[in-house]
Specification:
Chain B: It comes from Actinomadura darangshiensis. Chain B: One of its GO terms (cellular component) is plasma membrane. Chain B: InterPro entries: MetI-like, MetI-like_sf. The complex is a heterodimer of chains A (about 300) and B (about 300). Chain A has helices spanning about 1-40, 55-60, 65-95, 100-110, 115-125, 140-145, 160-185, 190-200, 205-215, 215-230, 235-240, 250-260, 265-295. With about 300 residues, chain A is mainly alpha-helical. Chain A has a domain at about 65-250: MetI-like (MetI-like fold), CATH 1.10.3720.10. In chain A, helix 3 packs antiparallel against helix 10 (about 215-230). Chain B is mostly helical and about 300 residues long. Helix content of chain B is about 65%, strand content about 0%. Chain B has helices spanning about 30-60, 80-120, 125-140, 145-155, 160-185, 190-200, 205-210, 215-230, 235-240, 250-255, 265-295. In chain B, helix 2 packs across helix 10, helix 3 packs across helix 5 and helix 5 (about 160-185) packs antiparallel against helix 8 (about 215-230). The two termini of chain B are about 15 Å apart. Classes of the chains: A mainly alpha (about 300), B mainly alpha (about 300). At the A-B interface, helix 1, helix 3, helix 4, helix 5 and helix 6 of A face helix 1, helix 2, helix 3, helix 4 and helix 5 of B.
């Protein structure tokens, strides 16, 4: 009897096993290996792997560029996540009841997602050209033409708020996606629920406030997780717009610099481990919740 | 909280409007408010299209119109010199990108389909744990595997080759592809699978004759999704590639990134457009499927 049950599921396990092995090795095995490198104290390419008891995780904070990289990543995340979330939700709210040409609006808001950050970085670097209007292309030039010269600024080269400007292309790229998520969320609120509230005399605003918005919490959570993990990993965009400059240094760029320019595997691996932990804290509870709630419904 | 909808209704389906047009919905889309909404939406359309205007217009400008003061005007004379220069520089990169993205997305889709089938319809004990462990692989920052991955590919003599890049893309694409197919296959009624089992069909036979014939939409979603992300990838390419396997993103970044040469905006913009055309075309022609891939990424299928 037991044997027959095993015969029932064993082929399935066998069919998935190549992927299990691949994920086991390439994701979990390599993460383990990377952590070992981070703990190895191997700061050049010739010394042997040792073990420095996690000293490097502390020492990293004494590096002049690292605290800045963390600060940049946090500012970028705050502006990008909030911006994309609010804009996406707002656009979806406007489209919720159906609007003439809705399909075309959706296509236009979403197309930036199909473009790589490397390609859009080319045009955003042009748009956010920090030079004064006589020499500038992009927005600074446009503002000058529109007699709004006062709006001209140094964009991503601003020492304090540069990363907020850096978030603009990312918002442009991702808010259409958030819009699509919210639109699906709005549309999944049963019409009878709204109707019932209206019958009870609720104004249209109150219908949204007390009936529709509360139903959107799972969507907001999904959007937050997705935007958040993209944001913590941001790399292409920074490389395309600013390259490896210290003023826009973020952990992902730091990993690259430590590995390729400074030839310091231990530092590169340590930064990568910090990134992994940041993402894991965000994603693991969400994953467990997702898979569980799907099983129980 | 999500119990309102049946698990059989994937998120993308919900985008369609229930019932007919709701122009008559109470308090909603009638009167001036409707035009206000339309105006705001149109204003955002203009904002969203600014980069496109700049790309197209600048790419067709001859070099002597590069003066900042005319940056936002239409070209005085339309020139394709930027485009031909872009084509010449990017051609090897475009070829590599085609090779990587086409072969990679096909392998990904096949793997995803098999995995998704087993994890939804031919489950084994612990299937959910395996699935959750897979999913985590979708979110990890790839920097956290890059140093040992480069070492591993070097040992396999795959570092710097197109095959090495395809391998990396396929392996780290397993989670999302499995997810898309699994979410699609849960909509197949279990009775169909059971009937096939009762008829004495084994796993592969059931997959082949019951599941695969209805899989076309999920294949389309996965192929498009993987094609797009492989085409647009920069991270793997820059860590694991080499000059003769660099895809178009790296080539584009190399030509655009160096401040050494005088800034040839027309060629840069043409290059950026050229590098984006394949994915843009896929999006415009098959946007429906692209959308479904996006929704799958949100997990709550």
């Amino acid at each position: 009897m037991k044997f027959r049950r095993i015969r029932k599921w064993l082929p399935g396990l066998l069919l998935v096993s190549p992927s299990i092995v691949a994920i086991g090795l390439f994701v979990y095995g390599l993460i383990f290996w990377n952590t070992r490198v981070a703990l190895s104290g191997k700061h050049d390419e010739v010394t042997e792997y040792g073990f420095d008891k996690g000293k490097n995780f502390v020492d990293l904070w004494d590096q002049p560029s690292w605290p800045g990289a963390v600060k940049h990543a946090l500012l970028f995340t705050a502006v990008f996540v909030l911006g994309a979330l609010l804009l996406g939700a707002f656009l979806a709210f406007l489209m919720d009841k159906g609007i003439r040409g809705e399909a075309s609006f959706r296509v236009i808001y979403l197309f930036p997602m199909a473009v790589s950050f490397i390609a859009s970085g080319v045009v955003w670097r042009w748009l956010m050209n920090p030079a004064p209007p006589q020499r500038a292309v992009g927005f600074n030039q446009l503002f000058d033409k529109l007699h709004l010269g006062g709006l001209g600024n140094s964009w991503w080269q601003d020492p304090d708020w540069g990363m907020a400007a850096m978030a603009l292309p990312a918002i442009w790229q991702m808010s259409g996606y958030v819009m699509a998520l919210y639109l699906a969320g709005f549309r999944s609120v049963p019409e009878d629920l709204r109707e019932a509230a209206r019958v009870d005399g609720a104004s249209e605003w109150k219908v949204y406030r007390y009936v529709v918005f509360p139903q959107l919490r799972p969507v907001t959570l999904s959007a937050l997780i997705i935007l958040g993990h993209i944001s913590l990993k941001v790399f292409d965009l920074i490389m395309a717009i600013a390259g490896k400059q210290i003023i826009t240094y973020v952990p992902a760029v730091a990993t690259y610099v430590e590995i390729f320019d400074r030839h310091d595997p231990a530092n590169g691996a340590t930064i990568a481990t910090y990134m992994l932990v940041a993402v894991a804290v965000l994603v693991i509870p969400y994953l467990v919740w997702s898979v569980r709630s799907e099983r129980t419904r | 909280m999500t119990s309102a909808e049946a698990p059989a209704a994937p998120m993308w389906r919900r985008l369609r409007r229930r019932g007919g047009p709701k122009a008559s919905a109470p308090g909603g889309s009638s009167g001036p408010w409707r035009y206000v909404k339309l105006a705001i939406l149109l204003a955002f359309v203009l904002l969203f299209l600014i980069p496109v205007y700049v790309l197209v217009v600048t790419s067709f400008k001859p070099l002597d119109e590069a003066d900042p003061s005319s940056a936002w005007s239409l070209p005085g004379s339309w020139s394709t010199s930027g485009w031909s220069a872009a084509w010449d520089t990017l051609k090897p990169g475009l070829e590599n990108s085609v090779k990587i993205a086409v072969s990679g997305s096909v392998i990904s889709a096949v793997l995803g389909s098999l995995n998704g089938f087993v994890l939804s319809k031919w489950r084994f004990p612990g299937a959910d744990v395996v699935f959750t462990l897979f999913l985590f692989g979708m979110f990890i920052p790839y920097q956290a595997v890059m140093i040992p991955l480069a070492g591993l590919l070097t040992d396999m003599e795959l570092v710097g080759t197109i095959r090495g890049l395809v391998l990396a893309h396929v392996v780290y694409g397993i989670p999302i592809c499995t997810l898309i197919f699994r979410n699609y296959y849960v909509t197949i009624p279990n009775e169909l699978i059971e009937a096939s089992r009762v008829d004495g069909a084994g796993m592969l036979r059931t997959y082949w004759s019951v599941v695969l014939p209805v899989s076309a939409p999920a294949f389309a979603v996965t192929l498009i999704w993987q094609f797009t992300s492989m085409w647009n990838d920069f991270l793997f390419a820059v860590f694991l590639g080499a000059p003769d396997s660099w895809p178009v993103t790296v080539m584009l970044n190399n030509t655009a990134g160096s401040g050494a040469v005088a800034v040839q905006y027309n060629q840069q913009m043409a290059s950026a457009l050229l590098a984006s055309l394949p994915t843009l075309l896929v999006y415009l022609l098959l946007g429906r499927f692209f959308m479904r891939g996006l929704m799958a990424g949100a997990l709550k299928g």
